[in-house]
Amino acid sequence: MELLIFLIIGALAGFAAGLFGVGGGTIIVPLLFIVFTQMGYDADTIMHLALGTSLATIIVTSISSLMAHNQKGGVMWPVFKNLAPGLALGCFLGAGIAGQISGLYLQLIVGVFLLWVAYRMFTADKRRTHMSDASHTPVVLPSKPKQLAAGGVIGAASAIFGIGGGSLTVPYLTRYNVVMQKAVGTSAACGLPIAIAGALGFMFFGMQQQVDVPNTIGFVHIYAFLGIASMSFFTAKVGAKVAHMLSPPLLKKCFSVLLFVVGLYFLYKGLF
């Protein structure tokens, strides 16, 4: 029964990720939080399990996304090489930081983050218009050490939010006039070291705390990982096809409203 529930979550997360063009973490974390709560797991470890498991599933989906973007020449590999070490180290250490934060505070942090993502999605069209006007401006990225440091910050934040980093990497690259297609493609590639390091970090630091939950390695739930990863890999492609049949701006605005509601839900659960 558990595996069936996780297969359904994976199907929903993958479909929504393809439909709305966002990382699966923003879907997986809230759904796992609700499911783990209903399963009666320890309240102080539920959020950690949701974050760690989310990052583990992103390993699979990021490989699929990376390959698709690379075929279209959308990955800036020199930039990836500069960011990747910082992303991996930052995400691993970020998992350690998340492990020291109480489940209550993690709920509040993720709730605020989801509200921010909802706002960015709701106003995406205005920003895209502005970026298209500046698309002919030369790309001038920071030095390698600064890119490495930026990767560390993005990686640490990704671990705490349980995401692949797209919500942070894309704005970072577009800030330096990288065109949207290459920013998204490079961000997809960056999701792989983030997910691997984050999952290993949540496993390692969770094992130090001796999590008393069945079918887990540290803060990663094995059944949830298998069910979500296997389904989301396929349904993401279905969601992407459906997205081309519908109005993307309307879809994103609807999804931003959903994220806004989920963000408020986390804040409510954490405060009351």
Please tell me about this protein's structure.
This protein has 272 residues and is mostly helical. Helices cover 81% and strands 1% of the residues. The protein has eleven helices and two strands. The chain has helices at 2-20, 25-38, 43-71, 77-100, 103-122, 124-133, 144-161, 166-175, 180-208, 222-243, 248-271; strands at 216-217, 220-221. Strands 1-2 form a two-stranded antiparallel sheet. A hairpin with a 2-residue loop joins strand 1 (216-217) and strand 2. Helix 2 runs antiparallel to helix 3 and helix 8 crosses helix 9 (180-208). It starts with a helix and ends with a helix.
Blueprint of the fold:
Layout: H1 2-20, H2 25-38, H3 43-71, H4 77-100, H5 103-122, H6 124-133, H7 144-161, H8 166-175, H9 180-208, E1 216-217, E2 220-221, H10 222-243, H11 248-271
Antiparallel strand pairs: 1-2
Helix pairs in contact: 1-2, 1-10, 2-3, 3-5, 3-9, 3-10, 4-7, 4-9, 5-11, 8-9
Biggest sheet strand line-up: 1-2
What's the tally of helices? 11
Please outline the major beta sheet: 2 strands, antiparallel
Chain-averaged pLDDT: 88
Q: Assign an overall shape.
A: globular
SS-derived structural category: mainly alpha
Outline the low-pLDDT stretches. none
Helix content: over 70%
* Sequence of secondary-structure elements: HHHHHHHHHEEHH
- Compute the CA-based radius of gyration: 18 Å
Q: Give the number of DSSP strands.
A: 2
**CA-to-CA gap between the ends?**
31 Å
What is the percentage of strand-forming residues? under 5%
